[in-house]
Amino acid sequence: MSAPADQQEKIRAILARLSAEFRDDCREKIDECGDILQRLSEQHDNWREDMIELQRRIHNIKGSAGSFGFPAITLIAHKLEDYLEAAESPAGHTHDIQVFLDVIRDIADRGINPPEEEYPALLRTLPRPRHGFVPVQRAREVHVLLAMPKDVQRRIVQKELASCGFDVTCADTGVAAIGLALATRPDAVFASLVLADMSGADLAGALAAIGATWKCPFALLTTVAADAPELAGLPPQACVIAKNERFMETLTERLIEWGLFGPRSPMGAHH
User: Fold this and answer.
1) Are 112 and 34 a contacting pair, CB within 8 Å?
2) Domain membership of residue 92 as a residue range
3) CA atoms of 78 and 75, how far apart (whole Å)
4) C-alpha of 107 from chain center
5) 150 and 93 share a domain?
6) Residue of 215, 219, 212, 204 lying closest to 174 (CA atoms)
7) Residues 120, 152 contacting (CB under 8 angstroms)
8) Is the pTM of this model over 0.90?
9) Over the stretch 158-192, which tens digit does the pLDDT of each residue have?
């Protein structure tokens, strides 16, 4: 009986060593990001190169954290990527970026991943991109998941939602969207009909089949007709928003209909 116990002890020791090495590497990358932020705060001519270097280091942290038992760091790094995508330039954003880095460092320093049930509250403490438009109605605390290919159109929709005061998390694929929906428990999900790994309609069906997300309002953003075969079988909580000249008007109508501008959410039970 001692041999298996010894083997398990060796495995635990190896995992502990790998976790420690990851945390050391993570802190080193955070330090490097801090140096880059310092240069960005000086607003020099080569800021685009520094932004690329910053994004590369954040992406590396995001890609490795989950493998070493820190999925919360992966999630925060993902949110920082979303923030950088929306910010476009570092002007006026270096303080907010430092907040993300400090939260990541804090988890690495503690060496313990926060409980999964704390993820939504943790994410809601992070900064959001600031835009010049101020909504007429002050939005309550609302988290929106946006599943779209990373392109100009996603950036436009992301900015429109952020300008309403919403916290927006982006996903490039359906699989990523499912994972983020489980981790962040969004108040609403918006998705393109066409994603790299599945259709937006398939994503709607998948989220409807999961107990933690089945009540979440879902909007499919598409140019096809509402009665098109690709949209057959959408779950009841899903609606279609046509990408036409009334797109933003219809989007706003849906947000109001779902109660996302009010003091409380009719779908709050899914949290």
Assistant:
1) no
2) 2-123
3) 5
4) 18
5) no
6) 204
7) no
8) no
9) 988 888 888 899 999 999 999 999 988 999 999 99
Which one-letter DSSP state was computed for residue 198? S
Domain containing residue 249: CATH number = 3.40.50.2300
Q: Find the Cα–Cα–Cα–Cα dihedral 72, 73, 79, 84, rounded to 10°.
A: 180
Nearest to 33 by CA among 43, 44, 41: 41
- Does pLDDT of 8 surpass 90? no
Tokens of 60: 């590396």
For the record, the structure tokens of 54 come out as 């910053």
The two three-digit tokens of residue 259, written as one number = 């109660």
Sequence-distant (6+) residues with CB within 8 A of 185 are: 120, 143, 212, 213, 216, 270, 271
Name the strands in the sheet holding 188-192, side by side, starting at the edge strand that comes first in the sequence. Answer: 167-171, 143-147, 188-192, 218-222, 238-242
- Return the CATH number at 113: 1.20.120.160
